[in-house]
Amino acid sequence: SRVPLMKTTCWAEHITPQLYTALHRRTCSSVSTSRITTHYTIHPRDKDPRWEGVEMDRFVDEADVVIVGGGPAGLSAAIRLKQLANKHEKELRVCLVEKASQIGAHTLSGACLEPTAVFELFPDWKERGAPLNTSVTEDVFSILTETRRIPVPMLPGLPMRNHGNYIVKLGNVVRWLGEQAEELGVELYPGYAAAEVLFHDDGSVKGIATNDVGIAKDGSPKDVFERGMELHAKITLFGEGCHGHLAKQLYKHFNLRENCEPQTYAIGLKELWMIDEKKWRPGRVEHSVGWPLNRNTYGGSFLYHLNEGEPLVALGFVVGLDYTNPYLNPFREFQRWKHHPFVARTLEGGHRIGYGARALNEGGFQSIPKLTFPGGLLIGCSPGFMNVPKIKGTHTAMKSGMLAAEAVFPKVTAESVDSETAGLHVPEYAEALKNSWVWKELYAVRNIRPSFHNYFGMRSPYLSREHPHFVTGCARSVSGLDADQLKPAKDCTPIEYPKPDGKISFDLLSSVALSGTNHEGDQPPHLTLKNDDVPVSRNLAIYDGPEQRFCPAGVYEYVPLETGDGMRLQINAQNCVHCKTCDIKDPSQNINWVVPEGGGGPAYNGL
Length: 607
Ligand SMILES: Cc1cc2nc3c(=O)[nH]c(=O)nc-3n(C[C@H](O)[C@H](O)[C@H](O)COP(=O)(O)OP(=O)(O)OC[C@H]3O[C@@H](n4cnc5c(N)ncnc54)[C@H](O)[C@@H]3O)c2cc1C
Ligand code: SF4
Hints:
Shape: globular
Radius of gyration: 24 Å
Distance between the termini: 47 Å
Mean pLDDT: 90
Structural class: alpha+beta
CATH topology of the domain at 60-119 and 169-260 and 369-444: FAD/NAD(P)-binding domain
Strand content: 15-25%
Largest sheet: 8 strands, mixed
Bound molecules: flavin-adenine dinucleotide, iron/sulfur cluster
Helix content: 10-25%
CATH architecture of the domain at 60-119 and 169-260 and 369-444: 3-Layer(bba) Sandwich
Number of strands: 24
Low-confidence stretches: 1-33, 458-471
C-alpha cells in the first residue's frame, strides 16, 4: 500500500507530529477501500482485462466546421457562418455539439444583457421574437453593512451602469438562438458531449470525439456500451464556456497560456423567485458589495426584476475564488445575504422556484490566452472575455463567436486551402478581435479586479483613487492561481453560518433538487481524482476538506471509513451542476472534471 509523501512535500511544514500519525493511519486505511476513481481517463482501458475484445472503433463523420458548446458564443458563431454561407451561396456544413439534453438547459447567468451583439447578429431581432422583454428602468448600486445600505450613485461612464440593457433569462435567449441556428441550417446535437480532442499526424486539431456511453460505475463495459463518434472538420471552434474541459487540454498541447497571466475565477450562485406582486418592480436592477463578505473577499450580489408576465426576480451572489479561508462556504454566504433587511423585504411572502451555480472568469484582459492554433480556435468565456466590473460576458462571448465565424468563413470556403497544417489555422480571428469593441472594452477595465487587493478591498473602485477612471496605466497582475490561495485550516477561524429558516434561506439538498440535475447513476464518477488518496491525506488534513464547502451541490462528503479508523471521500457525482468550481479551487489540483454521459447535468429552465 502507498504511504503518504508528507515528509518530502512542501505542504509537510503545516502538519504537526500528532496529525502526521493520525493521517498516516487514515491514508493507509483509505487505500484498502475500493477505488473512488474508476474513469478510463485515469485507468486506461487498454490495460484492463474487462475491456478485452470490446469493439472500440468509432463511426466518423465529416463537417466543414465543428463547434463545441451551444452557449451564446458557439451559437453566434454557427449562426454567423450560415448567414455568410447563405449570402455567398456556398455549401457549408456546420455541426454543433452541446452536452445538455436541450439547448439552453446548462445555461446559467444573471442576466442583465448588453444587447449590442444581439442587435449586430439579428438587426430584425424584434420581428424574430428575441426574448428581450425587460428593458432596465431603475439601476441601484449599494455597499451593504450588516444592517444598513449605503447607496452609490450610478454616474454616467461607470462600467456598472445598466442604462439601455435588458434583463433576460439567458437560457431562453440561448434557446431562441438555437432556433435561429436550426432555421439557418446549422446541425445541432444536444445531448452529445465532446469528450476528446482529435489530432492530425502533424499535431493540428482534426475534430472531436463525443463521449462513450454504457460504462458501469466500476469502469467496466455494460451490455449497452456504445463508442462515441468522431466528428472531423477543417476547423473546430471551442466554445465550452468558463473553464472548458477540452480547452484545458488545448492550453497544454499548444502552450497557449505561456504569455498571459493565470486565469482567475469566481463562483456565481443563483435563484429564481416568484415574489409578492406588490413588491415587483419590472426593470429594476440592484447590485451590492460588502456584507456578508469581509473586506478581503471579493464578491457581490445581483437582484433583477424580470418582466415575463409573472412577478419574477432573479437573484444571485458571486464570490471570488481567490478567497483564503478554507471554512468559507459560498452557498451559505449567499443564503446569509438574502437575510439582509434590504434584500429580505423583497423576498418575504414569495417562494423560490429555481437554483443553480456556475463559475465565471475574473482574470479579464491580462488572462486572455493565445486564441488560435492549427485546426482550431477559442471563443467566448472559454478563453475568458468577461467584463468583470460589469459582471457581463454574454455580449463579448457572442461577438467573439461572430468574429471567429467571419475570419473562418473565407478560409473554409476558399477554392484552395490556405494552411500549412492539415487543420486550418486562422490567426486572422485574433487580429479581428484586437480591432473590435471587445478588446477596447476589456482593456478599459483591466485593472479594476486586480486593484481589489488594496486597503479598501471590494469597495476600492467606489471609495478610493482606485475608481475606474483612475485605474489606468500598465495592466496589473492578477493574484495567481485560485487553487494556491487557501491558507491551512489551523491558521483560519471557522465561520459560523446561521441555520436556514426554510423561508428565505435553504439547505443545500433542497436547493440542488430545484436545479433538475440528473445523471445516469451507473457510470464512473466524472469528478476524477488523479490520486484517490490525496483528498484525505492533504485536503482534509491541511484544509479541513474545503471541497465540502465550495461545491454548491453537495457532491463531496467526507464520511467515516467502514472500519471506523479514519475518513474517506465520497463523491455524489449525480448531484453535479457542472459549475467547474472543484476543478478550479481544489488546493491539490487533484480533481479533473471530465464530461459525464451526454445529456446529464442540470436541467435549468431559463436560468
Ligand atoms: C452567476 C452569473 C451571472 C452572470 N451574469 C451575467 C450578466 O448579468 N450579464 C452577462 O452578459 N453575463 C453574465 N454572466 C456571464 C455569461 O453568462 C457568460 O459570459 C456567457 O454565458 C458566456 O457564453 P459562452 O457561450 O462563452 O459560455 P456558456 O454560456 O457557458 O456556454 C457554453 C456551453 O457549452 C456547453 N459545453 C461545455 N463543454 C462542453 C463539451 N465538452 N461538449 C459539449 N458541450 C459543452 C455547455 O453545456 C454550455 O451550454 C454571468 C455568469 C454567471 C455564472
Ligand atoms: S462537483 Fe465540481 S463541478 Fe460539480 S457542482 Fe460540485 S464543484 Fe461544481
